[in-house]
Amino acid sequence: MSNEVIKIKPTAFLDEKWEYDTSLLEYEYLVEYEFVTPSSGGAYYSPRRDLKLKKKPLTPEEKKLISWIKSTRIEIAEGADTRSIVKKRKFEYLKSEIGMNIVIPKGSIKEMRFYVELFANPEVIAIDGFPRDAISQKDIKGGKVKIAVGELFKFIPMFGGALAGSIKFELGPWEFKLGSLKKVNVDFSGGLTSKPEWYFKKNGIKNDLRVALTIKKPKETKYIMGKIKAGWLYDPGFFRKVRLETDTKTIKIF
Fold first, then answer.
1. Could you check whether the bond before residue 122 is cis, i.e. omega within 30 degrees of 0?
2. Same domain assignment for residues 81 and 97
3. pLDDT of residue 182
4. Do residues 126 and 244 both lie within one domain?
């Protein structure tokens, strides 16, 4: 696993549906675009040539908001912590962990989406992801939870009741360093995809966080890369909450 880190930073505002609204740069300068009909009255004209730009100054609150947003970022290791679980005739199965440090000097994150897009040749898929359900503070001991990988390469949490001794493990159990989460609900997009996604909700998102994947790859696949992106609901504490999206960076998965 690489000791170098990459940084993903907010670049755009999102709407209520977590879809693109406007770029941070456009908001910062508050540029309004106005189409102007040419005096010739012609039906065809270049919109770019016939645009007028109107700039409005930021209010003190908006300036403060922009400054605080620019100070936030997520730091992720350049390489995921990946190991082989088992090799079969045509496929190899991997367990991969991606750790991140969430830097929020001011304000707080109320919700967060974390996106991973796996790409390789031949193609690979994520079979399962962790965490994926509600997690209680009592289940997290020193920032860690105990999990295992079952024979279908699904993550099996070892909390919330004893597991039957008949369950067959492909890997584990082991202590997974989840991070400094408190009580938080987690939605996972589901496995069997090259684009897994996590959605963290409630007021338990703190500085460090870790997610895990089980991956199925053809044996001839020699490398796997991952495109990483995040979005979050940011509460500065003095202004309305805003949804933000980061830029996209690439890390080595395998």
1. yes
2. yes
3. 62
4. yes
